[in-house]
Amino acid sequence: MRPKLVLFGDSITEESFGEGGWGASLVHLFARKADVILRGYSGYNTRWALKILDKTMNGIGGDSDAPVAVTVFFGANDASLPDQKSGFQHVPLDEYKENLRSIHAYFKKKWPSTTVIFIAPPPIDEEGRIKDLCGDDPSGQAERTNEAAGEFAKGCITVAKELNLPVIDTWSKMQEIPDWRKSTLRDGLHFTPLGNKVLFDEVVKTLKDVGLSEEKLVTDQPYYYEVDFKDPSKTFGN
């Protein structure tokens, strides 16, 4: 039975199976060795994520075939400014942290053996957000700021340390890249191919730390060159 990895998050997770996406790269890396299951919901915050947990995780696995790991990647929408266009997505920081605790508690109750990995929200390029929302009108205001995203990233990391969970600090890691605002973010929020690669590399590193390594996994079914083409039953059995 192949190990399973579940990706749970907002639009940055939902889009991750697109061309060059960090989720698609995981599917490619673990081809024939593990199943990567996408559960991404564009526009969702942690408040809404809690409402859909039972429905979205139903049927993925039970006690005997629980996922090896689940990534939880929320916060970009929670950190929307409450008095701006996306204010309906905003969740206060303290509630965001409590929601992360509740999401973790749900997974540990459902799948006690599963490793939960938190991913902190990414940085924000305010200029990119204004252009995405308002075109070339410089009078517009960003509905998200990098400062607010940083506070939510710190909150995510704080909760992860409190729960002794692995956490990926996307906010800090992406800002190590030269010209990160344009090179890693295509619209001030969502990832370019480089931004996807940054997160992919961090996820792979974290998965190795918790014991899910592509090199150590068994391949599902023999490779074609291992098949006895004169008598395939010798390879596959009757």
CATH homologous superfamily label: SGNH hydrolase
Helix/strand-derived category reads alpha/beta
Residue share in helix: 40-55%
The arrangement of helices and strands along the chain is: EHHEHEHEHHEHHHH
Extended strand count? 5
Report how far apart the termini are. Answer: 20 Å
Protein name: SGNH hydrolase-type esterase domain-containing protein
Keywords: Hydrolase
Pfam families: Lipase_GDSL
Family: Belongs to the 'GDSL' lipolytic enzyme family.
Overview of the molecule:
- The chain has 238 residues and is an alpha/beta fold.
- The protein has one domain (4-236): Rossmann fold, CATH 3.40.50.
- It is built from ten helices and five strands, in the order E-H-H-E-H-E-H-E-H-H-E-H-H-H-H.
- It has a five-stranded parallel β-sheet, sandwiched between helices.
- The longest helix is centred in the middle third of the chain and has 18 residues, at 93-110.
Reconstruct the topology from this structure:
Layout: E1 4-9, H1 11-14, H2 22-29, E2 35-40, H3 46-57, E3 69-73, H4 93-110, E4 115-119, H5 126-134, H6 146-162, E5 167-168, H7 170-174, H8 180-183, H9 193-209, H10 233-236
Parallel strand pairs: 1-2, 1-3, 3-4, 4-5
Helix pairs in contact: 2-9, 3-4, 4-6
